[in-house]
Input
Amino acid sequence: MNRLFGRSKPKEPGPSLGDCIKGVDERAGAIEEKINKLENELRKYREQMSKMRDGPAKNSVKQKALRILKQKKAYEQQAESLRNQSFNMEQANYAAQSMKDTQITVAAMKDGVKQMQKEFKKIDIDQIEDIQDDMADMLEQAEEVQDALGRTYGMPEVDDDELAAELEALGDEIALDDDTSYLDDVVKAPAAPDREPGADSIISGNKNSIETDEFGLPKVPTTVKTT
Output
């Protein structure tokens, strides 16, 4: 049968969105190049017209410039249409890729849950609780051992009343040490002299006061009156 009718050729996969986007972008790029060329020609015609006087020659150049301008407008519309097509396909491609990523994420989460369930089956909750109870018992026993090791032996028995009396006496001694009444005499001491030792003084009691020197002797007048 295959020899009579031949084998059907396998269908080739259709173009992907990425291929379509690439083709549209290439077409838009080619049109952009044409627009740039027309823009350069249009600029030359404008410069040429600015240097010409009104007349048939200028009108001829003007007609060429108008034709170039119409072509430029047409190419701009085509380029804009291609950009819109490319944008729409990019949005569709992004949505499709997002769906694929979502499916991959969901599959990974399912595998993770299965792995967690598999590992959880290996854990015995009762065994963990038994371990916790054993740890609590061991810690309690360790605390009892520490208390036993911290006991004191051979301490003399002392009456609590005697200890209280000794503590009260110790408080009285501390109060005496803190007493500062003996400083009152120091505070009441006479004030320090406000003059330096040996300073000049005046002997009073006579009718005429006599100045004395640093040794308490009458000063000798520096000038002697002559008659």
Observations:
- The beta strands are 201-203, 210-212.
